[in-house]
Amino acid sequence: MRILIVEDDPLLGPGLKTGLAQDGYAADWVQTAALAEHALRVEHFDVAVLDLGLPGRDGLSLLRDLRAGGLMIPVLILTARDTLADKVIGLDTGADDYLAKPFDLDELTARIRALTRRSCGHAAPILRAGTLELDTQDRCVSLDGEGVPLSPKEYALVETLIARADHVVPRARLLAAGYGWEDQLESNALEVHIHHLRAKLGKQRILTVRSVGYTLVSHPSS
């Protein structure tokens, strides 16, 4: 899962990025609305965490323009503006959730997980594709009832694939799920991770769609 943090505070922004990365998320950080809008227009993110008190251009203005332009990414407002009126305005402007500062990182990540589940059409924290299960709360995967140890990058790929099981997921979408701007990315990194996942989940579980991407199959052939 890839998250864009839009926060001008020079301490909180990097702190959020580090905290989310420790939980296995790929997170990128920008400090202005202009940089956030550009990033959201040209790259894929699963969730945007948006401060309102940004320099130059307010976060609400950015949110309003994003929604007017048809960008439907889940947006969680994270701000010191904590009155009921502020919350109503933020949600009515197009935010999907609203969390006031100060906050607990565990609550923030729980809200992020809920937003991404709903955006993919899943209400429950357990995603299933045949006998393969992924628990978004505990961030673990099991196959035929047995736990499957995965690296953070492997988990991010399985989470993206299983949310769209039996559909082709483009290669660029998978790369975006697991890698932020500062990650060192080898040209064959995705292929290496897919190879490792096939060794753990079965060769027929993840199919290659040449020149497009990969498909996680709910009921692979033996």
TrEMBL record:
GO terms for biological process: regulation of DNA-templated transcription. SMART domains: REC, Trans_reg_C. The modification 4-aspartylphosphate is found at D51. Transmembrane segments: none annotated. Residues 2-116 form the Response regulatory domain. GO terms for molecular function: phosphorelay response regulator activity; transcription cis-regulatory region binding. Residues 124-218 bind DNA. Keywords: DNA-binding, Phosphoprotein, Transcription, Transcription regulation, Two-component regulatory system. The keyword Magnesium does not apply. Pfam families: Response_reg, Trans_reg_C. This is Response regulator. It comes from Allochromatium palmeri.
